[in-house]
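Hi R.,

As promised on Friday, here is the backbone we talked about, encoded as structure tokens. Could you run it through your design pipeline when you get a chance and send me back a sequence?
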């Protein structure tokens, strides 16, 4: 059974940092792109960042460019999201995805981890 498990969410003050991890089990994603998305209350899920299989190509939403960094470790079957200079607008449930079908749709999703940024 394929499973993606996020961790690292929590409560942080504005201006602070958090590091999210997503570890996959059940199969290797070393040849698949992976990504991070988020969904705030009352809003649609939105793209945050993605990374190709080698880690050499990354993409970011304009809202997080320069503040968030996506990386991966294929040996660990994991993808990470380093989030700096957090603002209350970053408050959301963060999801990792693996094996994109479209820009916004991935074949596999994690259960999400809550990130709350207080002002």
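Update: got your reply. Pasting your designed sequence below so it's all in one thread:
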């Amino acid at each position: 059974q394929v499973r993606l498990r996020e961790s690292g969410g929590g409560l942080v003050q504005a201006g602070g940092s958090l590091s999210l991890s997503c570890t996959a089990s059940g199969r290797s994603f070393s040849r698949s792109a992976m990504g991070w998305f988020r969904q705030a209350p009352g809003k649609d899920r939105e793209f945050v960042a993605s990374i190709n299989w080698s880690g050499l190509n990354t993409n970011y939403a304009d809202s997080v460019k320069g503040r968030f960094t996506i990386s991966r470790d294929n040996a660990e079957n994991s993808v990470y999201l380093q989030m700096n200079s957090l603002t209350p607008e970053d408050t959301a449930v963060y999801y990792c995805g693996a094996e994109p079908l479209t820009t916004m749709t991935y074949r596999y999703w994690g259960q999400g981890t809550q990130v709350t940024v207080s002002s």
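One thing I noticed while checking it: The longest strand covers residues 92-100.

Thanks again,
M.
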